[in-house]
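Hi everyone,

Forwarding the result from last night's run.
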Amino acid sequence: MWRLVIAVFMIQVLGTEGIFQDIDRPENPEVQMNVSQIIRYWHYPVEEHEVKTEDSYILTLIRIPYGRMGNNASAQRPVVFLQHGLLVTCTTWVSNLPNNSLGFLLADEGFDVWMGNSRGSTYSLKHAFLSTNSKQYWAFSFDELALYDLPASIDYVVNKTGQKIYYVGHSQGTLTGFIAFSTLPKLAEEVKVFFALAPVFYIQHIESLPLVLLLELPITSLKVLLGDKDFLPDTAFNEVLATNGCDNEIIDVACDNILFLTFGFDLENLNTSRIDVYVAHNPAGTSVQNILHLHQSYHEIEPILQAYDWGNPEENLAHYNQRIPPAYNLSTMKVPTALWSGLSDFLADPKDVSNAIPQIPEMIFHKILPTYNHLDFVLGVNAPQKIYYEIIKMIKETP
């Protein structure tokens, strides 16, 4: 839907692209690169690692082991794990210039940077025996991302490096962190500090227009509309839109406006010269079931987050040994947690954030950014000054 809304809006406003060919701006080279190529382009080392989950999904982890200056490459360095949000990939952490991207900044500060990729997204589409053409492959939601993907990824990194990790999540990456660390105490022991950017746990108050329009549909209509497999996968359309649309000085006004309607308004903090990079790599796909789970959570009357409801008591009994999906309980999470939230965030709404905060037992820091929207936390031009340098300082001061 996000892709469709952009396309329709641009066509209605601007007509054919040929009208504006003479004012096209040169595209950024990263538009046509994958994440490893982007990292190499900026002269950083990169490694790709494959991890198999307990339920046989094969995930790709991307590692930047040290910075451009070497940072004493053979030495052991603190390990930071970055987990992306909904409908994106780890490219989120390296989409801006090196002095403005958290993945690059951490590497240059002497950290060993690992970046996760959730199942069903561009870099984690493999399975030991299921095809992505099968309904069974896509039978997952953020439950499985939290209870299978994160444990497999974090255990792999801990075993590989011999160290506990610092965990940084954005959006859905915070949601899966909250679920995983409150449900799996042994996994929580492997995390020194949880840094949550645009934290999501409850979603009853989201204001993102495209997502609200989707979630307000009856669930039966939603299933008919979306099917039972993937939702907004990475396709050639992304690159076409980036190269023939959002690198155009007039058309990118339309792209900007769609981003604001979706994520919140903060014009001054958006680097419009990088819009083509963002659009080329996003959206990057998830399962329809993940969207259905969000739909269920959105319609909860009270602040509560439950596991996915499979639709009838018998199926729930088979999955959970009870007829009603269990509720997640933040109060059991024993990980020091630092939060950054925005008052202009249409997805991690301030009301939902305020409902979650009292339940976090070891919250060590909370910073509210009045103008920040949902994307500013990972793409904002002043994110280093507002957030990243604080994270780096906290890590360096952690015993």
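The radius of gyration is 20 Å.

Cheers,
N.
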